[in-house]
Write a structure and sequence with these properties.
single chain, 355 residues, mainly beta, Neuraminidase, 2 domains, six-stranded mixed β-sheet, four-stranded antiparallel β-sheet, 39% strand
Length: 355
């Protein structure tokens, strides 16, 4: 009777080497690319390895097609930016552009960004968010990772010398085709606090919502909580069974960012970005032109000034999960794979003899 081939210990040893050799398994450390736009001139940039030795790429000032292929600079009024899961960077501009009235929504696929040719945006349309003051603007954009919906922050500035105005949260149901259908979700106020000069909002991977609030604006009277510098809030959200945001439950103070960069310094954080791969919140500060790790492993941490030509970064975000190259194997993994498969190959060449 024919006998089944005896495989011996070689396959088991090979599998053991692949799975366990070299100590406990650890996930690869991958730092996603941080993308951003400078408000002063529309400069588009990318930062690789932001929390190590950063590599800065300048893609020049964003352009738009005025018609017939004639390009013009977008200009100096981009107040917010966020990346969609498909790699499209959406931006809010606080000015009329083309035939679109302020506040407008722009879009560019980061794959189309170029250092050797103009980086040209698509003008999606007007956001249709009503403002009653020339200082009002859409200061924040962020996609909810649990639903895919786009949310906007309206910085609801009050007239100079008047009482503080509370900012508003807006939902943009169709950012790709009809951003003008944005609807107000209400004022950002709750028993725990109120957002008075919100500069950006950002969701983390679990769907928690953060807002950075600048209290240093000269037209604000001192708020009741006494904080007069940048403040980081968490907005407690009430979600339904399908993760749809139903209401704001509360607003909690996470960090008073006063003197973040040292005693006597003033801070004006104007942009937030969530690093989904390292569970970290990064901020950009306008007063000091520096980046900072605000939440997550190693925080709080001054990341320093990164790049050239940046003067007022008001929109940053990370490449979403699924974009970019696959993780690089940990050192030694390739050697273990090779050894494992070599053992299997050797076992076959030996014709099934026992060890």
């Amino acid at each position: 009777m024919a006998r089944a081939p005896h495989l011996g210990l070689a396959p088991l040893l090979a599998v053991w080497l692949l799975l366990f050799a070299g100590g406990p398994a650890e996930s690869s450390t991958v730092t996603p690319d941080l993308w951003g736009v400078d408000e002063d001139d529309g400069q588009l940039f990318r930062i690789e390895n932001y929390n190590g030795v950063p590599v800065f790429t300048d893609f020049g000032d964003l352009q738009y097609d005025t018609g017939g292929g004639v390009l013009e600079p977008v200009g100096n009024d981009i107040e917010a930016a966020t990346l969609a899961p498909d790699g499209n960077l959406f931006m809010a501009i606080d000015d009329d552009i083309g035939a679109v009235s302020s506040p407008g929504l722009l879009r560019i696929d980061i794959d189309d960004a170029s250092t050797s040719a103009p980086s040209v945006v698509t003008i999606v349309g007007s956001l249709g968010i009503s403002t009653d003051n020339s200082s009002d603007n859409v200061s924040g954009l962020s996609f909810d990772p649990l639903t895919g919906g786009l949310w906007a922050l309206l910085k609801n500035s009050s007239a100079a010398g008047s009482s503080n105005a509370v900012d508003e949260l807006w939902f943009v149901p169709d950012p790709n085709n009809d951003p003008g259908t944005a609807v107000s979700f209400g004022a950002l106020t709750a028993p725990g606090g109120a957002v008075l000069q919100g500069e950006d909002l950002e969701f983390d991977a679990a769907g928690r919502l953060y807002v950075v609030d600048d209290r240093s604006s000269s037209n604000l009277s001192p708020p009741a909580d006494g904080i007069t510098d940048s403040t980081l809030w968490e907005i407690e959200l009430n979600r339904g069974a399908d993760d749809e945001i139903l209401s704001i439950d509360d607003i909690n103070l996470l960090s008073d960012l006063s003197e973040f960069f040292g005693a006597g310094s003033t801070e004006k954080f104007e942009a937030l970005a969530w690093d989904f791969q390292n569970d970290a919140l990064v901020g950009s500060d306008d007063d000091n032109n520096r980046f900072a790790l605000l939440r997550g492993p190693g925080s709080p941490l001054d990341l320093g000034a990164i790049g050239t030509g940046l003067t007022d970064v008001e929109g940053i975000d990370f490449v979403p999960l699924g974009e970019g190259p696959p993780p690089i194997p940990e050192p030694g993994t390739g050697a273990l794979l090779g050894l494992g498969f070599a053992l299997l190959s050797w076992r076959r060449r030996r014709g099934g003899s026992r060890w």
